[in-house]
Amino acid sequence: MALLDVSEVLNDPDLIEPTGLVRVRRTQTVSAQGLASNAEATLSFSGVVTAGKGDSLRRTDAGNNAQGNMTVTTTTDLRAEAPGQDADIVVWQGRRYIVESIADYRNFGYVQAYCDLLPLAG
After folding, report:
1. Topology adopted by domain 9-117
2. CA neighbours within 13 Å on the CB side: how many for 16?
């Protein structure tokens, strides 16, 4: 374990996201009959949100596609895809972002999650 632990800084009200963040963890189980059942569990958490590459609009012949991403630095366990579980979803300011990858700095007391905006369903 590293001697530097930044988790105290990540809980500082001057740095954390004041509107709050929500983690949505999705799991799937398959019954003996082969039927899949999906479940979602939510958890409110705090973290520091920073911009990724920013929001953009990709225009194609098939239509428009809004793209965006962000980075969340937090002491909360966030996961990209794992066996039997989809990647976590982070809800921030009413928008849903899927955890694309994790930089694991748990030895320093935090993780950094790189998240992509989920497409709008309509």
Report:
1. Thrombin, subunit H (2.40.10)
2. 19
Which among 61, 30, 17, 97 has a CA at the least distance from the CA of 88?
97
Q: To 5 degrees, how large is the angle CA 77–CA 79–CA 31?
A: 110
Sequence-distant (6+) residues with CB within 8 A of 46 are 10, 11, 16, 17, 20, 21, 74, 76
Longest dimension (CA), the chain: 54
Per-residue pLDDT of the chain (122 residues; tens, 9 = 90+): 566 667 777 777 787 776 789 999 988 788 899 888 888 899 999 899 988 766 555 666 666 555 678 999 999 999 998 776 789 999 998 889 999 999 999 888 899 999 999 876 54
DSSP 82: B
